[in-house]
Task: structure prediction
Amino acid sequence: MLARRVLSALAPRAANFQACASAAPACVRSMSLSRVHDVAGGSRSLSNATSPVVVKTSNGPMAGTESYAYDAFTGKNQIKNGGKAEPGDPSRRAFTYFVVGSARFVYASMARLAVIKFVHYMNASADVLALASIEVPIENIPSGGCIVVKWRGKPVFIKKRTEEELQDVANVDWRALRDPQSDKSRYQKEEILVVLGVCTHLGCVPISNAGEFKGGWFCPCHGSHYDASARIRKGPAPLNLEIPPYEFIGETKVKIG
Result:
């Protein structure tokens, strides 16, 4: 009779314990047996006390369990920002530096490419560079003769002067001229004169070996006269014919430009 009474008293609690274990394996369970005491008539009864079951879930403790269970997302042990590093956290600096550095590298590369393309666009083309300087043979120019070549879109006179022409320009008081220049300041070799064939009045092209001065030039547009040193002597032109940059290559060639 005693064994039957003990089994009948323990059966409900055993059922509750099995249900909790199957529903929540992570439950924290504790049981303590109370002392066995005598009941009326000297009979002995066995009783036990079971502590509340604590079930841990993502939303807090399960209904019917203790009011607090350890939870990483709620309660006093809550982890900030759901366990993720917050903006500005020192642990995120390496990633931030990597992103910012990569962006700056891309921007710098794009700026460099834009500058290179712009500079390449501003450079002179091959045909312009080819005309930047020209070499002209002069050995076949007759004494007193003048040839015309094209340099940078402008005519250039190359004249081989005679002794008579040289004597005439040397006898002129150059200080009294409209644009005072001595003949010696206008040549590298005395017999060879190189000047731009553009009138300094309105840009016309003068005619060689014409005008009032022997071996000089005459501009038919407005009547300007230049002597054999290409200095303005008469007419509306204000300046002498311009001398381009040039140099001699040996005795037979002139490089203009």
Summary: The first helix runs from residue 2 to 23. The CA atoms of residues 189 and 241 lie 17 Å apart.
